[in-house]
Specification:
globular; 224 residues; 23% helix; four-stranded mixed beta sheet; 6 helices; 21% strand; alpha+beta
Length: 224
């Protein structure tokens, strides 16, 4: 895909993707005249594909970076995909990367669609600069919060990054249920049964929670 094509360019411009990523590494399969998912590959892989042409049959390659949103009238038609967070993070516009304290990270893990009012004032201020109905990445850097009174149950040594959907008054983590259990255990020290539900104090509903695993430097996971 050429980054200058109208659909892809609109996504890249919206999320403030820096020139450092604007090569020819974007790939996608078209469905009904539009692309559903955008992948990114290294320049070396793209060069091999260009050289081989039709002689090379590609079944699957690349890292998912953007996925078409199911939300109508979204700020951007595409959301950030968790799998691509490590690849996208260094190139995203600053306002879409929000550093949070542990208390806010805990809120994201404990609640489904937590209200923004449950977050710290600084996080609310940063999120308010982003238009509703698009993606943001919430980052917790343990090195910057080493002296905080409240800390993760398991010592974290790397940046923890959670892609979220910015709703009108809440946030929704883009990660799956099995990873919620992993993150609850590693960060909060809780062990949850597969079929258990979590009480949502913010909106008086019962539902399965959603979170991510802490298995990589910039934590990510494919969407459920």
């Amino acid at each position: 895909m050429d980054p200058s094509t109208s659909d892809l360019k609109a996504v890249l411009d919206y999320y403030g993707i820096k020139e450092s990523m604007l090569g020819r590494g974007f790939l996608s399969r078209m469905e009904n005249g539009m692309f559903r998912t955008v992948y990114y590959v290294a320049d070396s892989v793209r060069q091999i594909m260009d050289y081989a042409g039709s002689r090379l049959r590609v079944v699957n390659t690349g890292i998912k970076v953007f996925g078409r949103s199911s939300v109508k009238e979204a700020g951007c038609a595409y959301r950030l995909v968790c799998e691509g967070v490590p690849q996208l993070l260094p190139h995203l516009g600053d306002k879409y990367v929000i550093e949070v304290p542990f208390a806010d990270l805990k809120t994201l893990i404990e609640h489904v669609n937590p209200l923004l009012s449950l977050m710290s004032e600084e996080t609310q201020r940063r999120v308010s600069k982003v238009a509703p109905s698009c993606s943001v990445i919430m980052c917790y850097d343990p090195a910057k919060h080493a002296d905080d009174e409240e800390k993760p149950f398991t010592r974290l040594t790397a940046l923890l990054s959670i892609p979220c959907w910015r709703g009108g008054a809440s946030l929704s983590a883009h990660i799956n249920k099995s990873q919620l259990r992993s993150l609850n255990h590693r960060v909060l020290g809780r062990v949850a049964d597969k079929n258990s539900t979590f009480k949502l104090d913010n909106n008086a509903r019962d539902s399965d929670s959603v979170a991510i695993s802490a298995d990589s430097p910039a934590v990510c996971a494919d969407d459920a």
